[in-house]
Amino acid sequence: MSESLGSGPVRRPQTTLRHRLAELRGPASAPHPLDARALAALAANPGCRRRALLDGAGVDKAALASALGAPSGFGQSQFAFMRGNAFEAKVKADGGAELMRLLGVAEPEDVRVPDLTAAGPQGRAARTALALREATGAGAWSLLDHPMLALEVAGPPAYLEPDAVVVHPDGRWTVVEIKSFPMIDGSADAAKVGAAARQAAVYVLALERVAAVTEGASVAHSVLLVCPKDFSNQPTGSVVDVRKQLSVTRRQLARLTRVEDIAAALPEGVSFDVEACSPEQLTASVEAVPHAYAPECLAACELAFHCRDRAREAGAVEALGRSVRGELGGLTTVGAVLAAARGEAGDPDDPAVAALRRAAALRAESLQEAAACR
Ligand code: SF4
Fold first, then answer.
1. Which residues pair with 145 in a beta bridge?
2. Which of 271, 288, 316 marks a domain boundary?
3. 135 and 41: one domain?
4. Which residues line ligand 1 at a C-beta cut-off of 6 Å?
5. Given a cut of 60, is residue 10 above it in pLDDT?
6. What separation in Å is there between the alpha carbon of 104 and the centre of ligand 1?
7. What string of DSSP letters covers 187-250?
8. Residue 178 and residue 228 share a domain
């Protein structure tokens, strides 16, 4: 089950689009799956067509960044990965008894754990939708372990896999996020909790599509975040309200330009096939797609070092941050800003130009005073 968040005129058949995206990715490369973390990052920068296209085409951005000579610092160590898996298994042990305790259910009489096995992501998403429907009408607790949800975002569907979804006897569905960062004295690193909340909001959004066609179902806008307690391996839980993240994600994803429109605007010969193209060809292809670099990309996108270098080379004020960019109005390059500050260019009635000149005068005055004191 999937539903489009985008809008617009009649579209080309999905098979044609899929074929075009496979060409862009490289026919021999398996598509890199989009996950909730990637969708949350896309939602945080909806103006970036480059990321929307690369993610929509399933390009492995980490491999592309390496081929461009600007490898990302992303990725989890094997040790952290194994530790995270062991912690998750502990949280879900005994048929979910510990998880239910964290949800405030002292002694659930019977927790159903439906089998969600099916072939391929489409099959798993269909199996999950069926299990959710059956569990909602059962009047009992159900734990869906690694369900699969589909969400169509500006192009082909993304398949998302939350750690768990709990179905309450009254038909409510709650997303469970299990993280391996610690919760110390009841609170965890705010940045990590924020990232987990954004990711969980994407799952809530995808679940709402299924709930809309499931009688008696509703999706909780609070999620259960489970982390290790203090410095132990004991799980502890915290209910996180994701209403704000949900409305931001919904709005931002709806603003994304459709992948097929971005692909249609590409010049001939563009390819992101890291096996077949030289670094020069890859660079030209990446540069053919407009980007929207901001320093926040450094924490969210594998191509950040490449895009930052290009933004700096172009003297783009975006490299200084979104708030600075907003303050500078029509001045879009560092060169234009400096010229305006020196009085060589710019409209003196423009508030940004006037502020820059005032700042330049104050700086010159301070430097003179400092020189006189020496
Ligand atoms: S790093 Fe580049 S491609 Fe990634 S979101 Fe930022 S601007 Fe877009």
1. 164
2. 316
3. no
4. 45, 48, 50-51, 291-293, 297, 301, 303-304, 307
5. no
6. 41
7. B--HHHHHHHHHHHHHHHHHHHHHHTTSTT-EE-SEEEEEEEBTTSS-EEEEEEE-HHHHHHHH
8. yes
Atom of ligand 1 nearest to the CA of 50: 3
Say yes or no to pLDDT of 296 above 80: yes
| Proportion of the chain above pLDDT 90, given as a percent | 62
The pLDDT, as a whole number, for residue 31 is 85
Q: Give me the chain's average pLDDT, please.
A: 89
DSSP state of 147: -
pLDDT in tens, 243-265: 999 999 888 888 777 888 899 99
The predicted-structure confidence for 307-338, as pLDDT tens digits, reads as follows: 999 999 999 998 888 888 888 988 999 999 99
- Domain of residue 364: give its range: 328-372
User: What burial letters (b/e) apply to 22-55, b meaning 16+ CB within 10 Å?
Assistant: bebbbeebeebebbbebbbbbbbbbebbbbbbbb
How many residues can be counted in the chain? 374
Which residue's C-alpha comes closest to atom 1 of ligand 1? Answer: 304
How far apart CA 52 and CA 258 sit, in angstroms, is: 8
Query: Residue 98 and residue 150: Cα distance in Å, rounded?
Result: 28
Residues 281 and 144 in one domain: no
The count of other CB atoms within 10 Å of the CB of residue 353 is 23
Pocket test for ligand 1, best of 34, 282, 286, 303 (most atoms within 8 A of CB): 303
Burial class (CB within 10 angstroms; exposed 0-12, middle 13-18, buried 19+) of 97: middle
- Residue 93 and residue 151 in one domain: yes
Question: Residue 274 is encoded by which pair of tokens?
Answer: 């890291």
Residue 321 lies in a domain: no
- Does 111 or 242 have the greater pLDDT score? 242
Locate 324 and state its tokens: 């600075």
